[in-house]
Each structure stands twice: as structure tokens, then as C-alpha cells.
Amino acid sequence: LLDVSWYTESMAAGRPVEILDRHKLQEQQGNEAEVAAFSVPSYACQRRTTLENHNTVLTDALSLLAENAELSEEDGRGVAFRRAAAVLKALPKPVASMTQLRGLPCLGEHSLRVIKDILENGASSEVESTKQSERYKALKVLTGIFGVGARTADRWIRDGIHNLRQLQDSGPTLNRAQQAGLEHYDDLNQPVSKSDADAIGEVVEKAVVSVLPGAHMTLIGGFRRGKLTGHDVDFLITHPEEGREVGLMPKLVSWLESQGFLLYQKTTRNSYLESKDGPARPASNMDRFERCFSIFKLTKEEKRGTKHPETLTENGAQTPDNGGLDLDLDLDQTKPAGHKPWRAVRVDLVVSPISQFAFALLGWTGSKLFERELRRWAGHEKSMSLSSHALYDNRQSKYLRATSEEEIFAHLGLEFVPPSERNA
Ligand code: DCT
Ligand code: MG
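A: This is the predicted complex of the input protein with 2',3'-dideoxycytidine 5'-triphosphate.
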């Protein structure tokens, strides 16, 4: 790795470093291409970020610091690290020297220090000490419980609770979500595979069409972006006829519950209101956009149901195609023999009226940073407000309608970015 100390020293001394740097680097590397700076637009929604990340060591480090800041309720710092990581995710090749980073947006002093440490020493001392810190470890374990956020975890830590054993021993009052979260802790902290997501998708699809024929369901979240694993499975449900989706969520939840698929569920009625004038005007139609946070019981049978018949042998066992291997890993090999033949999976269901569907689809596909950047772009660059329901143009004082994601990008003056390239 290159010695980059001269770079920061020159910067600190306020010396012009441009020409000197290039000469130095070319001498050391004999390769001008390495010196060429990357060019990256500053909003993540202006960039194409695939899952192919050439800088995982750097982005993992910055993501850990982001996570630590978020867990400490320092959201500003968290976003700064997320933005820095996202810039590195968009680079076409690995970063080899600090000079390559010159001119890149969103790389603050702190992030640059972390990157420099890794390039020079192979690791960041700040990241390593964070990982080892008792507080970080406790925050991770406690917020790993579904229903426990940073604030609750912090309160417990101040009460001397650092792990699950101490939590169970000291017995603070847990709400229903937290009780379910604790009960299914191991399962919910296992990554969810795409084949798990597809198996659940088949069940939810069946439920959706049986309670409301003609309704349809879309896989959203990370899986729509092409991720192979996730922490949950997210679905968006709508009906092509406006208004037919009203009341769908309770029916859907009842169906799933009656079939024994739900270990936990909580439905929130969205306060978003719609009238004939515009999607955000207060009006009479309540509860049109609902969300259900659930814990789904995924059984072996459901997993098998997604397999092609020819992959099943006579006694119903699977031949070892990839899906079968997944099943075995999820349900058999990682669990002691005789363990339960099912696993718990976090599933989020969202129902949207068709008039808001494109906004909901865009808003729920993510990534979280991509969404945040879209909203920031809309507000700061276009004087518009974007949500998962609507786009409002403050200059024209009106809502901009859209029936596809492409139209929303066009309203925002952005080039369309397909889901697989929204992995910022
Ligand atoms: N979302 C958002 N802002 C949040 C939370 C969620 O914009 N604060 C959107 C973007 C992603 C989508 O909702 C689903 O959320 P998650 O499931 O948390 O994200 P994910 O990308 O699907 O991540 P994972 O693959 O781990 O489930
Ligand atoms: Mg998700």
C-alpha cells in the first residue's frame, strides 16, 4: 500500500498538493491510470449502485461506525458515515490510495481518517475498538431483539443489562413485540434467504387472491434490489381498482392467522389520508394505507411447496438442488437434531391504493439511504416533497401524479435508476 502521510501533511499545512501528488504517485506506481480520480455525483439517487462492491473492507468499516452512531442516537453522524460508505460502494474498482478520493463528495474528515487508517494499516483502530467495546456489543445484542430500539437498549444498559441472560434475570416489562422478539431471537437473527422469501411470497400471494380476487402482490425491500439475503421480507399489495384495497389488511391477516402462519402481528393504520383533490388532503377515507409487522412461521412444507415437483423424491425429500441445500442449511444443519421443523421470519406487509402504488413501490424498495437521498434531492434541488404516498411540487402548489417509478424519476429530473442499481 502507498504511503499517504504526505497527502494529509500537505493538506494540513495548506500546501497545494495537486502537482506534487501526481508526480509522487506516478513515480511509485508507474501507472497513470491509478492516479485518475473517480467521478461521482453527490446524491446517491444520481448514481447507479449495484451489489458489486469493490471496496467492502472500507464500506464495512464505515457502515459499522454508522451503525454505532445510529445505535447511540447520533443520527447526523450515522448519515454522514452512510453517505461516505455509499460513495465508495459506487466506485468501479478498489481504492488504492487517498489521492484517488480527492474531489469525491460526502467524504468528511472523519471518514477520510478511517479510510486512511485502513489503507495504511490494514484496519481502523476506531472500528476495532468500537467492535470490542462493551457498549457496542450490548447495543447489538439488545437491539437484535425485534421491538427493541436504541432508546430501550440504552435504558437497559444503564440498568446493568448487557446480554440476554441479564435481561431474563432482571425481568423488565416487555411489550408483546419484544416478548415475541425474545422468543424467536435466534431465528430472527439468521439471514433470510431468497428461497425463504419466495416460499413466503407464495403463501402471501395465495392469501391475497383468496381474500380479494384481482389484488396483486409485489416483493419489495432488499430482495427487489436483487439481494440474496435480508433481515426480513417485505411485500406491497394493491388492487387495480381504486378503493377495492380498503379493508384488505384485516382480511389478509385473519386468513394467515387462521392457517397458523403468524407467530406475531401488529397492524398499524396509516394516518395518511386521501381525497379527490389530492393524495395528501384530509378527507373521509381513513386507513387506506396500512402496514403489518409480523413474524411468519415458515415450515418445511411451505419451503417444499416452492420446489419444482421433479426435485422431490418419492418420499417427499428434496434432491440437493440449490433450493434444497438452502432448506437444509436453514432448518436442519444449523439446528440441533430434533429441532423444530420451521423457522420464524420477519415479514412486513404494506397495502397501498393503486393511485399511490408507484410512490409506495419506490419508497419501499430502498435502500434506506437511496430513499433518504431521493427525498433530500426532491426537497433541496427541486423544491418538492416526496413520500411513499405522493410527490408535491411546492412551486406549482400541486401534487404530481405518477403511475410508474419511471414517471416519478422524470418528475424529479433524475435519470431512471432500476431497483438493482439502488443498492447505495
Ligand atoms: N425504508 C426507508 N426508511 C426506513 C426504513 C425503511 O426508506 N427508515 C424503506 C426502504 C427499504 C424498505 O423500506 C424496507 O426496509 P428494510 O426491510 O429495513 O430494508 P431492506 O433494504 O429490505 O433491508 P433487508 O434486506 O435487511 O431487509
Ligand atoms: Mg427488508
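The beta strands are 192-193, 216-220, 229-230, 233-238, 262-269, 290-299, 342-351, 384-386, 391-393, 398-399. The longest helix spans residues 194-211.
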